[in-house]
Amino acid sequence: MIKIHIIAGARPNFMKIAPIIKAIKKGQAKGKEIEFKLVHTGQHYDEKLSETFFKQLNIPAPDVNLEVGSGTQAQQTAQIMVKYEEYLIQNPCDIVLVVGDVNSTMACSIVAKKEHIDVAHVEGGIRSGDMTMPEEVNRKVTDSISDIFFTTSEYANDNLQKEGIKNEKVHYVGNTMIDTLVGNLDKLNKPGCWEEFGLTQGNYLVLTMHRPANVDEEHKLEEYIKVISEGITDKQVVFPVHPRTVKNLARIQDKYTNIHFIEPQGYLEFIYLIKDAFAVITDSGGIQEETTYLGVPCLTLRDNTERYETVSEGTNDLIGTNVANLKKALQKLFTEGWKKGDIPKYWDGQTAERIIEILTKIYK
Ligand code: UD1
Question: Nearest C-alpha to atom 21 of ligand 1 is from which residue?
Fold first, then answer.
Protein backbone atom coordinates (compact mmCIF):
# COMPACT_ATOMS: atom_id res chain seq x y z
CA MET A 1 0.00 0.00 0.00
CA ILE A 2 1.42 3.40 -1.02
CA LYS A 3 0.80 6.06 1.61
CA ILE A 4 0.80 9.70 0.50
CA HIS A 5 0.47 12.94 2.41
CA ILE A 6 -1.06 15.66 0.26
CA ILE A 7 -0.15 19.13 1.49
CA ALA A 8 -2.34 22.18 0.97
CA GLY A 9 -2.15 25.52 2.72
CA ALA A 10 -3.23 28.49 0.66
CA ARG A 11 -5.96 29.26 -1.85
CA PRO A 12 -4.10 28.41 -5.07
CA ASN A 13 -3.21 24.98 -3.67
CA PHE A 14 -6.80 23.85 -3.35
CA MET A 15 -7.49 23.89 -7.11
CA LYS A 16 -4.32 21.85 -7.64
CA ILE A 17 -5.00 19.10 -5.09
CA ALA A 18 -8.71 18.58 -5.87
CA PRO A 19 -8.14 16.60 -9.10
CA ILE A 20 -5.29 14.63 -7.51
CA ILE A 21 -7.59 13.41 -4.75
CA LYS A 22 -10.23 12.57 -7.31
CA ALA A 23 -7.70 10.56 -9.32
CA ILE A 24 -6.57 8.67 -6.20
CA LYS A 25 -10.17 7.76 -5.42
CA LYS A 26 -10.70 6.58 -8.97
CA GLY A 27 -7.52 4.49 -8.70
CA GLN A 28 -8.72 3.00 -5.39
CA ALA A 29 -12.03 2.05 -6.99
CA LYS A 30 -10.07 0.16 -9.64
CA GLY A 31 -8.13 -1.69 -6.94
CA LYS A 32 -4.95 0.43 -6.89
CA GLU A 33 -3.08 0.07 -3.59
CA ILE A 34 -2.84 3.74 -2.69
CA GLU A 35 -4.13 5.82 0.21
CA PHE A 36 -3.71 9.44 1.26
CA LYS A 37 -3.98 11.83 4.15
CA LEU A 38 -4.84 15.43 3.43
CA VAL A 39 -2.85 17.92 5.50
CA HIS A 40 -4.14 21.52 5.61
CA THR A 41 -1.49 23.73 7.12
CA GLY A 42 -3.97 26.52 7.86
CA GLN A 43 -1.87 29.15 6.04
CA HIS A 44 -5.16 30.46 4.64
CA TYR A 45 -7.98 30.22 7.16
CA ASP A 46 -10.69 32.69 6.07
CA GLU A 47 -13.80 30.92 4.87
CA LYS A 48 -13.60 32.82 1.58
CA LEU A 49 -9.98 31.77 0.96
CA SER A 50 -10.29 28.18 2.15
CA GLU A 51 -13.55 26.46 3.19
CA THR A 52 -15.52 27.70 0.18
CA PHE A 53 -12.99 26.00 -2.10
CA PHE A 54 -13.25 22.71 -0.21
CA LYS A 55 -17.03 22.78 -0.61
CA GLN A 56 -17.14 23.86 -4.23
CA LEU A 57 -14.40 21.51 -5.41
CA ASN A 58 -15.64 18.53 -3.36
CA ILE A 59 -12.37 18.23 -1.48
CA PRO A 60 -12.79 15.96 1.57
CA ALA A 61 -12.28 17.47 5.02
CA PRO A 62 -8.56 17.50 5.85
CA ASP A 63 -7.27 14.70 8.09
CA VAL A 64 -5.53 17.41 10.05
CA ASN A 65 -5.47 21.20 10.11
CA LEU A 66 -2.21 22.54 11.54
CA GLU A 67 -3.83 25.96 12.02
CA VAL A 68 -0.63 27.93 11.58
CA GLY A 69 -2.33 31.18 10.49
CA SER A 70 -0.55 34.35 9.45
CA GLY A 71 2.85 35.75 10.37
CA THR A 72 6.08 36.93 8.84
CA GLN A 73 7.69 34.70 6.24
CA ALA A 74 9.89 33.03 8.85
CA GLN A 75 7.19 32.76 11.51
CA GLN A 76 4.74 31.12 9.14
CA THR A 77 7.32 28.77 7.64
CA ALA A 78 8.68 27.81 11.05
CA GLN A 79 5.21 27.16 12.48
CA ILE A 80 4.36 24.88 9.57
CA MET A 81 7.62 22.97 9.97
CA VAL A 82 7.23 22.42 13.71
CA LYS A 83 3.62 21.30 13.46
CA TYR A 84 4.01 19.18 10.37
CA GLU A 85 7.07 17.38 11.76
CA GLU A 86 5.04 16.32 14.76
CA TYR A 87 2.21 15.07 12.56
CA LEU A 88 4.52 13.26 10.13
CA ILE A 89 6.36 11.43 12.90
CA GLN A 90 3.04 10.17 14.26
CA ASN A 91 1.64 9.42 10.79
CA PRO A 92 4.48 8.16 8.60
CA CYS A 93 4.05 7.88 4.84
CA ASP A 94 5.99 6.96 1.69
CA ILE A 95 5.58 10.18 -0.28
CA VAL A 96 4.87 13.77 0.62
CA LEU A 97 3.18 15.43 -2.32
CA VAL A 98 3.41 19.22 -2.42
CA VAL A 99 1.97 21.60 -5.00
CA GLY A 100 2.87 25.07 -6.21
CA ASP A 101 5.12 27.56 -4.46
CA VAL A 102 3.59 28.80 -1.23
CA ASN A 103 5.27 28.74 2.18
CA SER A 104 3.47 25.49 3.04
CA THR A 105 5.02 23.83 -0.04
CA MET A 106 8.58 24.59 0.99
CA ALA A 107 8.11 24.05 4.73
CA CYS A 108 6.60 20.57 4.38
CA SER A 109 9.17 19.51 1.77
CA ILE A 110 12.02 20.30 4.13
CA VAL A 111 10.37 18.42 6.98
CA ALA A 112 9.69 15.39 4.77
CA LYS A 113 13.21 15.23 3.38
CA LYS A 114 14.76 15.39 6.84
CA GLU A 115 12.54 12.46 7.84
CA HIS A 116 13.93 10.61 4.77
CA ILE A 117 10.62 10.63 2.99
CA ASP A 118 10.37 11.18 -0.76
CA VAL A 119 9.00 14.52 -1.94
CA ALA A 120 6.92 14.81 -5.11
CA HIS A 121 6.56 18.38 -6.38
CA VAL A 122 3.58 19.11 -8.58
CA GLU A 123 4.39 22.20 -10.69
CA GLY A 124 8.12 21.66 -10.25
CA GLY A 125 10.70 23.54 -12.31
CA ILE A 126 8.95 26.82 -12.98
CA ARG A 127 11.15 29.88 -12.39
CA SER A 128 10.56 33.62 -12.55
CA GLY A 129 14.23 34.42 -11.97
CA ASP A 130 13.09 36.99 -9.41
CA MET A 131 14.52 36.17 -6.01
CA THR A 132 12.64 39.05 -4.36
CA MET A 133 9.48 36.94 -4.59
CA PRO A 134 9.00 34.60 -1.64
CA GLU A 135 7.48 32.11 -4.09
CA GLU A 136 10.71 31.92 -6.12
CA VAL A 137 12.67 31.05 -2.99
CA ASN A 138 10.05 28.44 -2.14
CA ARG A 139 10.26 26.93 -5.64
CA LYS A 140 14.04 26.71 -5.69
CA VAL A 141 14.36 25.26 -2.21
CA THR A 142 11.57 22.73 -2.83
CA ASP A 143 13.03 21.62 -6.16
CA SER A 144 16.52 21.30 -4.72
CA ILE A 145 15.31 18.51 -2.41
CA SER A 146 12.45 16.93 -4.38
CA ASP A 147 12.66 13.36 -5.66
CA ILE A 148 9.94 13.47 -8.31
CA PHE A 149 8.92 16.44 -10.43
CA PHE A 150 5.60 16.81 -12.20
CA THR A 151 5.89 19.64 -14.71
CA THR A 152 3.51 21.91 -16.59
CA SER A 153 5.72 23.10 -19.47
CA GLU A 154 8.87 22.57 -21.53
CA TYR A 155 10.29 25.66 -19.81
CA ALA A 156 10.01 23.86 -16.48
CA ASN A 157 11.70 20.76 -17.92
CA ASP A 158 14.57 22.89 -19.25
CA ASN A 159 15.01 24.71 -15.94
CA LEU A 160 15.29 21.44 -14.05
CA GLN A 161 17.77 20.08 -16.55
CA LYS A 162 19.91 23.22 -16.22
CA GLU A 163 19.86 22.76 -12.46
CA GLY A 164 21.24 19.25 -12.84
CA ILE A 165 18.08 17.24 -12.14
CA LYS A 166 18.19 13.83 -13.84
CA ASN A 167 15.67 13.43 -16.66
CA GLU A 168 14.17 10.26 -15.21
CA LYS A 169 12.93 12.21 -12.20
CA VAL A 170 11.00 14.69 -14.36
CA HIS A 171 7.51 13.86 -15.62
CA TYR A 172 5.94 16.32 -18.04
CA VAL A 173 2.26 15.80 -17.24
CA GLY A 174 0.48 19.14 -17.66
CA ASN A 175 -1.41 21.33 -15.27
CA THR A 176 -3.66 20.18 -12.42
CA MET A 177 -5.13 23.68 -12.05
CA ILE A 178 -6.42 23.28 -15.61
CA ASP A 179 -7.87 19.87 -14.66
CA THR A 180 -10.02 21.71 -12.14
CA LEU A 181 -10.97 24.35 -14.68
CA VAL A 182 -11.94 21.80 -17.32
CA GLY A 183 -13.91 19.77 -14.78
CA ASN A 184 -15.92 22.72 -13.53
CA LEU A 185 -16.76 24.69 -16.67
CA ASP A 186 -20.28 23.26 -16.70
CA LYS A 187 -20.80 23.93 -12.98
CA LEU A 188 -20.02 27.65 -12.75
CA ASN A 189 -22.16 29.97 -10.59
CA LYS A 190 -23.25 33.44 -11.63
CA PRO A 191 -21.90 35.70 -8.87
CA GLY A 192 -24.26 37.97 -6.90
CA CYS A 193 -22.60 41.08 -8.34
CA TRP A 194 -23.56 40.14 -11.92
CA GLU A 195 -27.04 41.64 -11.80
CA GLU A 196 -26.09 44.32 -9.28
CA PHE A 197 -23.55 45.92 -11.65
CA GLY A 198 -25.39 45.09 -14.88
CA LEU A 199 -22.57 42.84 -16.11
CA THR A 200 -22.88 41.29 -19.56
CA GLN A 201 -20.38 39.32 -21.60
CA GLY A 202 -17.49 41.64 -22.49
CA ASN A 203 -18.73 44.82 -20.78
CA TYR A 204 -16.29 44.56 -17.87
CA LEU A 205 -12.71 43.68 -16.94
CA VAL A 206 -11.59 41.68 -13.91
CA LEU A 207 -8.74 42.94 -11.73
CA THR A 208 -6.83 41.06 -9.02
CA MET A 209 -3.78 42.28 -7.10
CA HIS A 210 -2.09 40.81 -4.07
CA ARG A 211 1.69 40.78 -4.63
CA PRO A 212 3.53 42.60 -1.84
CA ALA A 213 5.47 44.67 -4.43
CA ASN A 214 2.20 45.96 -5.93
CA VAL A 215 -0.12 46.38 -2.97
CA ASP A 216 1.90 47.01 0.17
CA GLU A 217 2.34 50.73 -0.55
CA GLU A 218 -0.84 52.78 -0.75
CA HIS A 219 0.44 55.32 -3.27
CA LYS A 220 1.74 52.66 -5.68
CA LEU A 221 -1.56 50.81 -5.46
CA GLU A 222 -3.48 54.03 -6.13
CA GLU A 223 -1.38 54.76 -9.23
CA TYR A 224 -2.50 51.45 -10.71
CA ILE A 225 -6.14 52.00 -9.77
CA LYS A 226 -6.14 55.50 -11.26
CA VAL A 227 -4.62 54.40 -14.59
CA ILE A 228 -7.05 51.50 -14.81
CA SER A 229 -10.06 53.64 -13.94
CA GLU A 230 -9.07 56.20 -16.61
CA GLY A 231 -8.07 53.65 -19.26
CA ILE A 232 -11.12 51.39 -19.57
CA THR A 233 -13.30 53.67 -21.76
CA ASP A 234 -16.97 52.87 -21.07
CA LYS A 235 -16.32 49.50 -19.46
CA GLN A 236 -16.29 48.74 -15.75
CA VAL A 237 -13.95 46.72 -13.55
CA VAL A 238 -14.76 44.02 -11.04
CA PHE A 239 -12.03 43.74 -8.40
CA PRO A 240 -12.31 40.88 -5.89
CA VAL A 241 -9.99 42.14 -3.16
CA HIS A 242 -7.50 39.80 -1.45
CA PRO A 243 -7.20 40.34 2.35
CA ARG A 244 -3.64 41.56 1.91
CA THR A 245 -4.84 44.40 -0.36
CA VAL A 246 -7.80 45.57 1.73
CA LYS A 247 -6.11 47.99 4.09
CA ASN A 248 -4.35 50.04 1.43
CA LEU A 249 -7.57 50.46 -0.54
CA ALA A 250 -9.65 51.72 2.37
CA ARG A 251 -8.87 55.43 1.91
CA ILE A 252 -8.87 55.53 -1.87
CA GLN A 253 -11.48 53.19 -3.27
CA ASP A 254 -14.51 55.51 -3.08
CA LYS A 255 -12.92 57.86 -5.63
CA TYR A 256 -13.08 55.32 -8.45
CA THR A 257 -16.71 54.66 -9.24
CA ASN A 258 -16.18 52.54 -12.37
CA ILE A 259 -14.28 49.97 -10.29
CA HIS A 260 -16.36 47.63 -8.13
CA PHE A 261 -14.40 46.48 -5.10
CA ILE A 262 -15.89 43.18 -3.95
CA GLU A 263 -15.02 40.39 -1.52
CA PRO A 264 -12.91 37.40 -2.61
CA GLN A 265 -15.10 35.15 -4.75
CA GLY A 266 -15.61 31.41 -4.64
CA TYR A 267 -13.96 29.37 -7.39
CA LEU A 268 -17.13 28.81 -9.40
CA GLU A 269 -18.06 32.50 -9.26
CA PHE A 270 -14.57 33.73 -10.06
CA ILE A 271 -14.17 31.56 -13.15
CA TYR A 272 -17.66 32.66 -14.25
CA LEU A 273 -16.40 36.24 -14.07
CA ILE A 274 -13.15 35.74 -15.95
CA LYS A 275 -14.67 33.53 -18.64
CA ASP A 276 -16.88 36.37 -19.89
CA ALA A 277 -14.53 39.28 -19.16
CA PHE A 278 -13.29 41.64 -21.88
CA ALA A 279 -9.86 41.24 -20.31
CA VAL A 280 -8.18 40.45 -17.00
CA ILE A 281 -5.55 42.54 -15.24
CA THR A 282 -3.68 40.59 -12.57
CA ASP A 283 -0.50 39.90 -10.66
CA SER A 284 -1.51 36.31 -9.84
CA GLY A 285 0.31 33.23 -11.10
CA GLY A 286 -2.61 30.89 -11.64
CA ILE A 287 -4.86 33.42 -13.36
CA GLN A 288 -2.29 33.76 -16.15
CA GLU A 289 -2.90 30.07 -16.82
CA GLU A 290 -6.67 30.18 -16.50
CA THR A 291 -7.01 33.09 -18.94
CA THR A 292 -4.75 31.31 -21.42
CA TYR A 293 -6.96 28.25 -21.29
CA LEU A 294 -10.11 30.38 -21.67
CA GLY A 295 -8.62 32.58 -24.42
CA VAL A 296 -9.22 35.79 -22.46
CA PRO A 297 -6.68 38.66 -22.80
CA CYS A 298 -4.49 38.84 -19.69
CA LEU A 299 -2.39 41.87 -18.69
CA THR A 300 0.05 40.79 -16.01
CA LEU A 301 1.34 43.44 -13.63
CA ARG A 302 4.73 41.88 -13.12
CA ASP A 303 8.17 42.22 -14.74
CA ASN A 304 8.61 38.48 -15.07
CA THR A 305 6.65 35.27 -15.02
CA GLU A 306 7.40 31.70 -14.09
CA ARG A 307 4.62 30.66 -16.50
CA TYR A 308 6.26 31.79 -19.71
CA GLU A 309 4.16 29.49 -21.92
CA THR A 310 1.18 31.74 -21.15
CA VAL A 311 3.07 34.55 -22.94
CA SER A 312 4.74 32.58 -25.74
CA GLU A 313 1.66 30.49 -26.55
CA GLY A 314 -1.26 31.95 -24.61
CA THR A 315 -3.13 35.24 -24.24
CA ASN A 316 -0.93 36.64 -21.49
CA ASP A 317 1.43 39.61 -21.77
CA LEU A 318 3.83 40.99 -19.19
CA ILE A 319 2.98 44.64 -18.67
CA GLY A 320 5.52 45.20 -15.91
CA THR A 321 5.15 47.24 -12.78
CA ASN A 322 5.51 50.69 -14.33
CA VAL A 323 2.08 52.33 -14.64
CA ALA A 324 3.07 54.12 -17.86
CA ASN A 325 3.28 50.67 -19.50
CA LEU A 326 -0.12 49.75 -18.17
CA LYS A 327 -1.58 52.88 -19.68
CA LYS A 328 -0.09 51.99 -23.08
CA ALA A 329 -1.25 48.38 -22.83
CA LEU A 330 -4.82 49.47 -22.10
CA GLN A 331 -4.74 51.81 -25.11
CA LYS A 332 -3.55 48.91 -27.26
CA LEU A 333 -6.22 46.60 -25.88
CA PHE A 334 -8.98 49.07 -26.68
CA THR A 335 -7.72 50.19 -30.10
CA GLU A 336 -5.91 47.23 -31.69
CA GLY A 337 -7.34 44.34 -29.70
CA TRP A 338 -5.25 41.48 -28.30
CA LYS A 339 -3.42 38.38 -29.54
CA LYS A 340 -5.28 35.08 -29.82
CA GLY A 341 -3.56 32.29 -27.95
CA ASP A 342 -3.25 28.52 -28.00
CA ILE A 343 -3.65 26.03 -25.18
CA PRO A 344 -0.31 24.55 -24.06
CA LYS A 345 0.42 20.85 -24.44
CA TYR A 346 -1.13 18.47 -21.87
CA TRP A 347 -3.45 21.16 -20.46
CA ASP A 348 -6.28 18.76 -21.15
CA GLY A 349 -7.94 17.89 -17.85
CA GLN A 350 -6.08 14.56 -17.49
CA THR A 351 -2.97 15.65 -15.58
CA ALA A 352 -3.89 14.30 -12.14
CA GLU A 353 -4.63 10.89 -13.61
CA ARG A 354 -1.19 10.86 -15.21
CA ILE A 355 0.37 11.77 -11.87
CA ILE A 356 -1.32 8.93 -10.01
CA GLU A 357 -0.49 6.47 -12.79
CA ILE A 358 3.19 7.42 -12.53
CA LEU A 359 3.31 7.37 -8.72
CA THR A 360 1.69 3.94 -8.53
CA LYS A 361 4.18 2.59 -11.08
CA ILE A 362 7.21 4.01 -9.28
CA TYR A 363 6.17 2.92 -5.79
CA LYS A 364 4.39 -0.36 -6.53
C1 UD1 B 1 -0.07 33.51 -0.38
C2 UD1 B 1 1.09 32.92 -1.19
C3 UD1 B 1 1.00 33.42 -2.62
C4 UD1 B 1 -0.35 33.12 -3.21
C5 UD1 B 1 -1.42 33.73 -2.33
C6 UD1 B 1 -2.81 33.48 -2.86
C7 UD1 B 1 3.23 32.60 0.03
C8 UD1 B 1 4.56 33.15 0.24
N9 UD1 B 1 2.38 33.38 -0.67
O10 UD1 B 1 0.10 34.92 -0.34
O11 UD1 B 1 1.97 32.75 -3.40
O12 UD1 B 1 -0.43 33.66 -4.52
O13 UD1 B 1 -1.29 33.16 -1.03
O14 UD1 B 1 -3.77 34.05 -2.04
O15 UD1 B 1 2.95 31.50 0.45
N16 UD1 B 1 -4.91 36.70 5.49
C17 UD1 B 1 -6.24 36.74 5.83
N18 UD1 B 1 -6.95 35.58 5.81
C19 UD1 B 1 -6.40 34.40 5.43
C20 UD1 B 1 -5.05 34.38 5.06
C21 UD1 B 1 -4.32 35.54 5.08
O22 UD1 B 1 -6.79 37.79 6.19
O23 UD1 B 1 -7.11 33.38 5.40
C24 UD1 B 1 -4.12 37.94 5.52
C25 UD1 B 1 -2.91 37.80 6.43
O26 UD1 B 1 -3.19 38.22 7.70
C27 UD1 B 1 -1.89 38.67 5.74
C28 UD1 B 1 -2.25 38.57 4.27
O29 UD1 B 1 -3.59 38.13 4.21
O30 UD1 B 1 -2.04 40.01 6.12
C31 UD1 B 1 -1.30 37.70 3.51
O32 UD1 B 1 -1.45 36.31 3.80
P33 UD1 B 1 -0.25 35.26 3.55
O34 UD1 B 1 -0.72 33.89 3.73
O35 UD1 B 1 0.94 35.68 4.32
O36 UD1 B 1 0.18 35.46 2.04
P37 UD1 B 1 -0.66 35.84 0.74
O38 UD1 B 1 -0.34 37.24 0.41
O39 UD1 B 1 -2.08 35.40 0.85
Answer: 44
